[in-house]
From TrEMBL:
Lineage: Bacteria, Bacillati, Bacillota, Bacilli, Bacillales
Residue span(s) of domain DUF4825: 40-124
Keywords assigned by UniProt, alphabetized: Signal
Protein name: DUF4825 domain-containing protein
The species this protein was found in: Listeria rustica
Signal peptide (residue range): 1-24
Any Pfam family matching the protein: DUF4825
InterPro entries xrefs: DUF4825
Highest rank taxon of the organism: Bacteria
Length: 160
C-alpha cells in the first residue's frame, strides 16, 4: 500500500514539473500583453505599497533575474532599488534602453516615486545606476504621465 502511495506521489510531482516547464514563454523576460494589463491596473500606486511596487517590477523587463526589491520610504526622496542576479554566460536583454524603459514605467505608474536604482550582480562583479524622476522625461523623450495614460500607450512604449 505504501509503495502504491509513493508511486502516485512521485508521478504527480513529475506531471507538475513537466507542466511547469511546458508552460514557459519563449523569452519570459519580455513583457506580454497580460503584463501590460497588470501594469496598467497598478497605475497610481504609491511607493509605500510594497505589494503593488513588487507586482510592477515583476511584470517589467528582466523579471526573471530579480534577486531583491528594496523600498526607501522613510523620508523623501522616495525610491526603489531592484537588484538583479544575471549570470555572465546568460544572454539576457540587458541594455541601457531596457533599464530606461523599466525606470520610466515605474515613474509613470508610481507618482510619488523619486528615484529608481538598478543593481546588477554578475559572476564576481557588481554594477548599477540610478534614474531620477526629474531627469527621466529628457532621457526617454516622453512625458512620463503619457506613458501609462492607456494600456495601448503603455504597450507601445514597452515595444518601442
Amino acid at each position: 500500500m505504501m509503495r502504491r502511495y509513493l508511486s502516485v506521489v512521485m508521478l504527480s510531482v513529475m506531471v507538475l514539473m513537466i507542466a511547469g516547464c511546458a508552460n514557459g514563454k519563449e523569452n519570459s523576460s519580455e513583457p506580454t500583453s497580460e503584463d501590460v494589463q497588470v501594469l496598467f491596473e497598478k497605475r497610481d500606486s504609491k511607493i509605500g505599497d510594497n505589494s503593488a511596487v513588487s507586482a510592477i517590477v515583476q511584470h517589467l523587463y528582466l523579471r526573471d533575474y530579480i534577486q531583491e526589491i528594496q523600498l526607501q520610504t522613510k523620508k523623501k526622496p522616495y525610491g526603489v532599488t531592484v537588484t538583479y542576479e544575471i549570470p555572465d554566460s546568460d544572454e539576457t536583454p540587458n541594455s541601457p534602453d531596457i533599464h530606461e524603459k523599466n525606470a520610466a514605467v515605474l515613474f509613470s505608474l508610481i507618482p510619488n516615486l523619486d528615484s529608481v536604482t538598478f543593481m546588477f550582480n554578475a559572476d564576481n562583479s557588481s554594477l548599477g545606476g540610478t534614474y531620477y524622476r526629474s531627469k527621466m522625461g529628457n532621457v526617454v523623450k516622453e512625458n512620463l504621465e503619457d506613458i501609462s495614460k492607456s494600456e495601448e500607450s503603455l504597450s507601445q512604449f514597452l515595444d518601442s
